[in-house]
Amino acid sequence: MLQIGDEVVYFSAVFLLVVLATRSATAASLLTAVLYVFMVMFRFPPVPADQAGRVLRPRAPSGGVPVVAHRGGSHDAPENTLAAIREASRNGATGVELDLSFTADGVPVLMHDETVDRTTNGSGPVNKLQIVQLRRLDAAAHHRLKVKFSGEKVPTLQEAVEECIRHQLTIFFDVKGQPDKAASVLHEIYKKFPALYNSSVVSSLEPKVIYKMRQTDPNVVTALTHRPWRLSRFSDGTSRTLSTSGQLWTGVLDVLLDWAHHHILWKLCGVSAILVQKDFISLDYVQYWAERGVEVVGWTVNTAVEKDYYQNQLKIGYITDSLLEDCDPQY
Ligand SMILES: *[C@@H]1O[C@H](CO)[C@@H](O)[C@H](O)[C@H]1NC(C)=O
Ligand SMILES: *[C@@H]1O[C@H](CO)[C@@H](O)[C@H](O)[C@H]1NC(C)=O
Q: pTM of the entire structure?
């Protein structure tokens, strides 16, 4: 979709700022022109709207909004396991969100943290373990339902994809870093399972991951994940730094990052959706993105009251830790 209005506003703002800073209309014109050409040359057009729609608005069995199980539904089953995927399907999820990671020998697997300590009976960084070592671990070791799910393994990316396709679940691949490796591995898996083009989306907090993904395979549906105040505050809202100057500085960076997400980065990457921390989503916010052809998905929506609000007021999809009951958020 073309937003002439948006672009006139951004580039006028840039022009004015440069004029104020340099007091030279020539410099301002030149810089604005360079920026404009850069955007036009380096941005990726979004995938066609009907393809994005198949991924982001799958037909929910109940006719409701899309419901995506966070890490496969970390409250209902051990996170990022095949059991979680099956459980999410059985409980009516339309999709699952899964975390991509790599073993020491380069095998793509599902793991959220950098280490295996929190979720398995092993210890140490995932990228220091060989796949055979990782496979010996119990992925249900610390889960509240570990008895029910005992013996669950850490799955490879391919096993997880096959399980999702079997259950007709949408996949939200969450990628934390390693843009080059992640993009090439995901590209391979899309080639191997072309159905994924119609049933999965690659998301990341890092625009460079998404940009690299679109560069490697422009047919992949992508999303930027956004948590306002990410640089200055932890997920639970407490400050990352105690010093006043530190807070001020990271706060300023957060404002700039927020602006960049909403005005530049989404367009440069050509994303089809934006995944936003639930407390920052309103009807106006959803409308803002709808006008730009971008879907909003909220996370992590864990109470019946909130789910009702998404279903009946916002009418947008959400990511949740449980399909069954209210629970505390997993960050
Ligand atoms: C973890 O649990 C599995 C399954 O019970 C067991 O085979 C393995 O030896 C355990 N590994 C460690 C490091 O305790
Ligand atoms: C995606 O779905 C459309 C419409 O059903 C279909 O024409 C297309 O071939 C599908 N693409 C892939 C890669 O399966």
A: 0.91
